[in-house]
Amino acid sequence: MAIEIKAPTYPESVQEGTLATWHKQAGDQVSRDDLIVDIETDKVVLEVVAPASGTITEVLKVEGDIVLSNEVLARIEETSSVESAQPPAASAKIESDAEIGGVLVNPAAKKLADERDIDLALVKGTGKGGRITKEDVVNYAPPPVITAGAEENVQEAVEVMIQSGERVERRVAMTRMRSRISERLMSVTQSTAMLTTFNEVDMSTMMGLRKQYQDEFTKIHNGTRLGFMGMFVKAAVEALKRFPLVNASIDGTDIVYHGFQDIGVAVSTDRGLVVPVLRNAENMSIATVENAISDYAGKARDGKLTIDEMTGGTFTITNGGVYGSLLSTPILNPPQSAILGMHKIQQRPVAIEGQVVVRPMMNLALSYDHRLIDGKDAVRFLVAIKELVEDPAKILLEI
């Protein structure tokens, strides 16, 4: 029985996707839940798996095609339970090895190579006498090349060009995600009155707290490490309660106040920056925050984040310090009205009670939409963050 392989149902915020990668081809045998194809949307890469075991009989879309919600991508001829339980019948036709370029090639290997358009002269045989087997073709990895949209190959290809000494250029198309990020950033600069205010925070107490309780914290919370982001998230939650306008957003001529704190945490991936959201962060403990961030980071690296996990959010935190940034102006994540930027901790001299001492200092930046948030409230909000971070007991006591 023929079964259709369809694109998933997209949420309202996603109109279409681009077919990124076929992992299976027409004629391939697949098992239920095998990964068939990747679809790249504005926000995330969606994986489409086989709905049943069988043979792919027809492929209707090629890589780079636009894919709509629930559109048919391919068809599978389902393998019945009786057929799958019986061994294949003996064939009357016996194919012998072919000789290509002085090397023997297994018939199955030649068929697969033809299907995948692989030059067998480039495949190293591991069979008896150097014979090329089907497994050799399956495991064959072609040399990296630059193709339209393949941004992940660009760095490696550019290094090869530099080493060759040739004055050449390569042009590649942006991925859908990178293109969408570009559009959103341009939209922010054109549709908001963005302004940034700065402050600095003495990290001595927080660093001492983490050092003192790290081992105990990790032991009690089943391996979860105590990081700075968890404490900054909780500090942001407390500050947002005090300044609800910073947690609000503009919708036309209305101001939308949110009675919850959904905190987005910016995570960098090979495909671009993504912002998974910690739902109801006001109800989360520091350990729960750290666990959630760790899970999101792993999903982001593997391309497993869902659209729902990156949708919404009332406030965002981004940490350029992990890459060495000392100071930056983070860009708003619309429709949010503010974003907090953390930076590298650096030992530097500061004046405390008339004495010059060396302390671990971090620069903080708050970018905000001046249409909604006045400078006074933005500064007071950032000062509240500073005070909570410099005296973490206030976070726990909510004072």
Question: Can you give keywords for this protein?
Answer:
alpha+beta; OB fold (Dihydrolipoamide Acetyltransferase, E2P); elongated; four-stranded antiparallel β-sheet; 10 helices; 399 residues; 2 domains; seven-stranded mixed β-sheet; Chloramphenicol Acetyltransferase
Could you characterize the architecture of this molecule?
The protein is 29% helix and 26% strand. The N and C termini lie far apart (66 Å). By secondary structure, the chain is an alpha+beta fold. Helix 7 (228-242) crosses helix 8 and helix 7 (228-242) crosses helix 9. The radius of gyration is 27 Å and the shape is elongated. It has 10 helices and 21 strands. A hairpin with a 2-residue loop joins strand 9 (98-100) and strand 10. It has 2 domains: 1-89, RNA polymerase II/Efflux pump adaptor protein, barrel-sandwich hybrid domain (OB fold (Dihydrolipoamide Acetyltransferase, E2P), Beta Barrel), CATH 2.40.50; 178-397, Chloramphenicol acetyltransferase-like domain (Chloramphenicol Acetyltransferase), CATH 3.30.559.10. It has helices spanning 81-85, 107-116, 134-138, 154-164, 176-191, 204-220, 228-242, 286-302, 375-390, 393-397; strands spanning 2-6, 17-22, 29-30, 35-40, 45-49, 54-59, 66-67, 72-78, 98-100, 103-105, 194-202, 249-251, 254-256, 263-265, 267-269, 272-274, 277-278, 315-319, 338-342, 345-352, 355-369. Mean pLDDT is 84; it is low at 82-96 and 144-150.
